[in-house]
Amino acid sequence: MELAMLLHKLKMEHLENHVDAVCEQAAARELDYKEFLSRALAVEWQGRDQRGIEARLSQARFPWVKSLEQFEFEFQPSLDRRQVRELAGLSFVERNHNVVILGPPGVGKTHLSISLGVKAVEAGYSVRFLTLETMMTRLIKAKHENRLERALQQMAYPRLLIIDEIGYLPLSREEASLFFRLIVRRYERASLIITSNKSFLDWGDVFNDHVLATAILDRLLHHATTLNIKGESYRLKEKRRAG
Ligand code: ADP
Ligand code: MG
């Protein structure tokens, strides 16, 4: 069988696309057989890896993408750079621990949560980003359409779930209890990143039920890193800079 046909049948499409270049390079660099084989398979592997990253990135549904490298730590001195770097190593995902990012509007909570999410995508984890509002709309709709179980399962599935903007809108009792069910499902099985503009003391009001809020916080914080950002809004800084 011909090489192109073999590569096609083996579904090695990335190598198939680059096979001439790979062979030319091997000849030019006088690679031995083992080096050549490893180089050729690496081309196929990198192509597949890249495609996996792209697929997981699109499944994550980030509203926008910014990296940790784009985050100016100088602007936010209350944030411990070392702690964020430690989180970027993703051992929290490996161990099914959570991250809670607290702070007023504009301090970079969503930016940081997306950046950590992108790192997790690159490392091969499934990630899903949802604002609390979207999440609640989905769950309530599913409940009324008698497919709550499936909707909860879908949200329990990603290895890292990011729930953005807890605290902007208070939840009804029904919503709060659905939120609790999701937290229970994911507890010690998968990681959460949660952002909020409200301190934990105010979560009783956010969830409309102090006992439930305590039960939620109890599970959420059992294995969690909390980043408490106390600084100024980056949006305002940009506005000021623009005059
Ligand atoms: P929050 O979610 O806390 O309200 P965002 O993460 O949405 O804030 O940040 C608002 C905007 O400012 C975003 O475009 C974000 O990328 C940017 N931003 C915030 N903090 C920083 C920072 N320290 N360095 C760079 N960009 C930042
Ligand atoms: Mg935000």
Characterise the protein shown here:
The protein has helices at 3-9, 13-28, 33-60, 81-88, 91-94, 109-122, 132-144, 148-156, 173-186, 203-206, 210-222, 234-242, and strands at 98-102, 127-131, 160-166, 191-196, 224-228. It is built from twelve helices and five strands. Helices cover 57% and strands 12% of the residues. The radius of gyration is 23 Å and the shape is globular. Helix 9 links the parallel strand 3 and strand 4 (191-196). With 243 residues, it is an alpha/beta fold. The longest helix is centred in the first third of the chain and has 28 residues, at 33-60. A five-stranded parallel sheet has the order 2-3-4-1-5. Helix 7 (132-144) runs antiparallel to helix 8. Magnesium ion is lined by residues 109-110, 164-165.
List key phrases describing it:
243 residues; alpha/beta; five-stranded parallel β-sheet; 5 strands; binds adenosine-5'-diphosphate; binds magnesium ion
Task: Present the secondary structure layout.
Elements: H1 3-9, H2 13-28, H3 33-60, H4 81-88, H5 91-94, E1 98-102, H6 109-122, E2 127-131, H7 132-144, H8 148-156, E3 160-166, H9 173-186, E4 191-196, H10 203-206, H11 210-222, E5 224-228, H12 234-242
Parallel strand pairs: 1-4, 1-5, 2-3, 3-4
Helix pairs in contact: 2-3, 3-6, 7-8, 9-11
